[in-house]
């Protein structure tokens, strides 16, 4: 860890800044990356009290607008305001171009894989992906075998989690292709930044994110059954106690469509209708924010009160479109994640643009031995886990926690993967209410829409591990978020500031 020093006039906010691993703003104690220099200079010129004041304004806007998420624990859950950091993360145009191409490539291959799994299964027959992994996945839905979906698109909305390795390369950490959340924070973060910190935009040409709702609606309309020229779209939510309910309501409002719960929908003559004050109105596309298990009690969990009885029958016969389709959870399975580069080569005959994190599969005996003897060094994840739950971070674990995971892995090796502990890149973050700026670890979740074409929202959700030294960015585990700026043009290379940063 190296301390950053700066001339006295520029030192107040950055006085305790330390470099750990790859830093988004700094290349070293004497250098600011070229595309960050205007931002650094503006921040360095802001008196700490002014930064504290504007940070409070931003927090107040978040609270006033009710930008929340729910953390589950005992009882029904606790609603919290999403913590927001006002220092944006900057992504140069050339960096983003590579990310965008890599995401489009990956989602195209993942979609082809899902289609193949539920139809011809060529990739399984050829042995490029082990069949037992697929059929043993909690996300595999045999009910989807042979079902044709509009335009063969299964993955209408994806959130792909990226991290940077110690030298700055972007790697895919996870694929989220069922009901990914977080895009509402992307849009709201930009609104808050424009109002609370407008001067920071003056030195940059930043690509907008405001087209997302229109692009999402277009992708959803593309999922309509054939022969429906003007489809009616609804957003299906589990209800107000869901952790992402704020987002469900926000997106429905932004798209100008109805937000419904399962009790608002009925089956009639094979079609799906929603109850309105004017009577029943036909529904053509459902943007469902409910997991497969709860969609239809006649097909999946019989105790579900969240879905719609008979919905799968209407879906099978092509009377309604679902986005995302039923069954893509098979590619969210972390046990299948290591094979995505093979999928890209198999279906597209291309090398992956974005790599995976090195992953060990305990189901393989040699891998299992490696994992069990190095638990203190590795991150272990349940293949069906999410939200930062069901994880062991080896370097931060206790002997008792490691022993617990050892027993779990030995009992169910298919249920876990392990990866090296990678120090996430860090980004300048306001701490102590605005009194100082320190580095905090971040990841990036870009959002990908698959309609007539594959579009990537410029930027995405940068999640921040707010506790010092933490590597867990999930909001449920104390993480926050910040605005992500994709720059329209690539600025000059790193700039040396002499005796300072």
TrEMBL record:
InterPro entries: ATP-dep_Glu-Cys_Ligase-2 (IPR051680), CP_ATPgrasp_2 (IPR025841), UCP005522 (IPR016450). It comes from the Bacteria. Residues 88-465 form the Circularly permuted ATP-grasp type domain. It holds the Pfam family CP_ATPgrasp_2. Gene3D superfamilies: 3.30.1490.270, 3.40.50.11290. This is Protein containing domains DUF404, DUF407. It comes from Frigoriglobus tundricola.
């Amino acid at each position: 860890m190296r301390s950053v020093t700066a001339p006295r006039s520029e030192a107040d906010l950055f006085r305790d800044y330390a470099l750990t691993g790859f830093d988004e703003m700094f290349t070293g104690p004497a250098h600011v990356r070229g595309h960050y220099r205007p931002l650094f200079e503006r921040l360095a010129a802001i008196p700490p009290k002014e930064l504290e004041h504007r940070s409070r304004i931003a927090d107040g806007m978040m609270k006033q607008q009710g930008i929340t998420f729910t953390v589950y624990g005992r009882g029904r859950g606790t609603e919290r305001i999403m913590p927001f950091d006002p220092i944006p993360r900057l992504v140069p145009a050339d960096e983003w171009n590579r990310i965008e191409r890599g995401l489009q490539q990956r989602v195209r291959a993942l979609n082809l894989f899902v289609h193949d799994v539920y139809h011809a299964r060529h990739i399984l027959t050829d042995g490029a992906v082990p069949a037992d992994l697929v059929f043993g996945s909690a996300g595999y839905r045999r009910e989807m075998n042979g079902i044709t979906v509009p335009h063969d698109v299964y993955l209408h909305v994806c959130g792909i989690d990226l991290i940077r390795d110690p030298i700055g390369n972007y790697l895919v950490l996870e694929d989220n292709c069922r009901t990914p959340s977080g895009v509402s924070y992307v849009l709201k973060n930009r609104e808050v930044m424009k109002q609370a910190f407008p001067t920071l935009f003056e030195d940059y040409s930043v690509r907008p994110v405001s087209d997302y709702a229109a692009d999402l609606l277009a992708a959803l309309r593309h999922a309509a059954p054939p022969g429906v020229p003007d489809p009616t779209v609804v957003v299906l939510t589990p209800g107000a106690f869901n952790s992402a309910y704020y987002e469900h309501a926000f997106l429905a409002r932004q798209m100008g469509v109805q937000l419904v719960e399962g009790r608002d929908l009925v089956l009639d003559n094979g079609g799906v209708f929603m109850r309105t004050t004017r009577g029943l109105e036909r529904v053509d596309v459902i943007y469902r924010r409910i997991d497969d298990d709860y969609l239809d009690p006649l097909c999946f969990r019989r105790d579900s009160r969240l879905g719609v009885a008979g919905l799968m029958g209407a879906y099978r016969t092509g009377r309604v479109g679902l986005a995302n389709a039923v069954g893509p959870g098979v590619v969210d399975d972390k046990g299948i994640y290591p094979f995505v580069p093979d999928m890209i080569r198999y279906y597209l005959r291309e090398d992956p643009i974005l790599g995976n994190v090195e992953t060990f599969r305990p189901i393989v005996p040699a891998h299992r031995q490696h994992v069990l003897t190095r638990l203190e060094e590795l991150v272990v994840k349940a293949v069906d886990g999410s939200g930062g739950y069901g994880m062991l971070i080896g370097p931060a674990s206790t002997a008792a926690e490691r022993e617990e995971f050892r027993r779990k892995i030995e009992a169910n090796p298919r249920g876990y993967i392990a990866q090296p502990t990678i120090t996430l890149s860090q980004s300048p973050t306001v701490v102590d209410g605005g009194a100082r700026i320190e580095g905090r670890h971040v990841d990036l979740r870009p959002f990908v829409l698959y309609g007539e074409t594959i579009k990537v929202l410029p930027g995405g959700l940068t999640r921040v591990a707010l506790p010092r030294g933490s590597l867990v960015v999930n909001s449920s585990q104390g993480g926050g978020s910040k605005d992500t700026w994709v720059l329209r043009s690539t600025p000059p290379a790193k700039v040396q500031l002499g005796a300072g940063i």
